[in-house]
Design goal:
This protein has 188 residues and is of the alpha+beta class. The chain has one domain (2-185): Cyclic phosphodiesterase (Cyclic Phosphodiesterase, Chain: A). Helix content is 31%, strand content 38%. It is built from four helices and nine strands; from the N terminus they run βαββαββαβαβββ. It has helices at residues 11-28, 56-68, 100-116, 141-151; strands at residues 2-7, 33-35, 43-50, 73-84, 89-96, 129-135, 155-161, 163-172, 175-185. Helix 2 packs across helix 3 (100-116). It is globular.
Amino acid sequence: MRAFIAVDPDETSRAALHRLIGRLSRRFGNQSVKWVDPAQLHATVAFLGDVPDEHADVIADIVRAAASDTRPFTVIAAGLGVFPSDAAPRVLWAGVTDGAVELGAVSDRIWSSLERIGLSREERPYHAHVTLGRCRFPIDSKTWHDECTRAGRMEVCRWTVSSLHLYRSILTPDGPRYEVVRTCPCAA
């Protein structure tokens, strides 16, 4: 299964992120960018890629253990950015300001356990964000830069992280579809 671990925004935050996507789609269009469906918005904690189905229960136990060691915390999505670079944007995202340290710590705890079962951590450093869209074709990087400058670090939304989710990503011709494999509540 193709898998990742994430935290989900609440419905109010989904609506705010959806409004942001609507504004950006009017500026950049729907041909150049595949915008994320609001129901699938999340902040990835760990992208696992393809893992054997028989690892699902062990991975879910790792997520449960990490969640039980994590107290609820607030995430604030603010500002805009791109991966891999401003000159060649492929992923358009809203940044995470408050909560980024906590998400990074959870990611590190999870990866420490995942590495013990033979999974390899991505080489890129962890960067907390919510993906808004993926570029199908190059977009005008100056226009995106102007959009990022205008957004600054203005808060888009905030939510309380109270659980971690193990997701299965199913690739379809219309884009990925995510299914929750396990939801693990954070410590009370």
